[in-house]
Task: inverse folding
């Protein structure tokens, strides 16, 4: 089966306004957005996708399916399926690296873009070289140990310390759906190819970075984006890598205000 014949799973939620594409990070799922959907629905119609190898999406065998370029094509396919001329886009962690690439490749299709802490999105060549051995080792572990790797993985979202019982249960159910092979390919073929650091100067779409300041390792990336990315605003919140969960109310307020503002300002503002 070729990469072009397998497609991402997505759920469309009720709401008022344009469609809003939401893309989670590695090891997460559609549960990532549970603390946000109700508020975001007041200004948009959320469209929640799940990465290949995650949640309800398939796990293609072909490495090409896991490349950022294929994800960009998939996002365009979803937009066309929905009949949307333009939409909002929101990415979290690795999902932010993918939405940034989509926005840079198809700015004419995006009303506004929101993204959160994403070390991979704004990484330099040294970062890629530094993480490559770990991702290759992870792929080997997944091939040998399978799902056991997820139990103590630092990015396992169900291990979060500030989760409500309902959100923890949703994450636990979705972690059970992770495919070891799909996650291994995600690390090898998306993470290592995801940086867009050298391209952010091309941005021509109103953008908001919601920076969870408790993840101090992202501070340099946030400063770089603020200095080099046109049309970017930065909202700094008291949260960590999963800022949309850690500071859900403040995240929701910042994102809704930003999206609503872009609609009021219009495309030529």
Result:
């Amino acid at each position: 089966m070729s990469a072009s014949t397998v497609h991402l799973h997505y759920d469309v939620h009720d709401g008022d306004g344009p469609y809003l594409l939401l893309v989670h990070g590695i090891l997460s799922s559609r549960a990532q957005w549970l603390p946000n959907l109700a508020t975001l629905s007041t200004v948009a119609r959320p469209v929640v996708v799940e990465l290949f190898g995650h949640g309800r999406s398939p796990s293609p065998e072909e490495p090409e399916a896991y490349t950022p370029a294929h994800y960009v094509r998939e996002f365009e396919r979803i937009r066309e399926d929905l009949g949307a001329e333009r939409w909002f886009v929101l990415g979290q962690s690795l999902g932010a690296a993918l939405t940034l690439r989509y926005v840079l490749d198809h700015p004419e299709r995006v009303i506004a873009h929101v993204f959160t802490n994403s070390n991979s999105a704004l990484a330099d060549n040294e970062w890629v070289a530094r993480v490559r051995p770990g991702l290759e080792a992870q792929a080997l572990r997944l091939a040998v140990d399978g799902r056991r790797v997820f139990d103590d993985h630092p990015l396992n979202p169900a291990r979060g310390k500030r989760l409500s019982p309902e959100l923890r249960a949703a994450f636990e159910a979705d972690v059970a759906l992770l495919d070891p092979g799909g996650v291994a390919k995600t690390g090898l073929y998306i993470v290592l190819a995801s940086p867009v650091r050298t391209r952010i100067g091309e941005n021509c779409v109103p953008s908001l970075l919601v920076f969870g300041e408790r993840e101090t390792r992202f501070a340099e990336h946030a400063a770089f984006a603020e200095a080099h990315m046109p049309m970017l605003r930065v909202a700094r919140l008291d949260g960590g890598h999963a800022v949309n969960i850690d500071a859900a109310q403040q995240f929701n307020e910042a994102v809704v205000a930003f999206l609503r503002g872009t609609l009021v300002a219009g495309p030529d503002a």
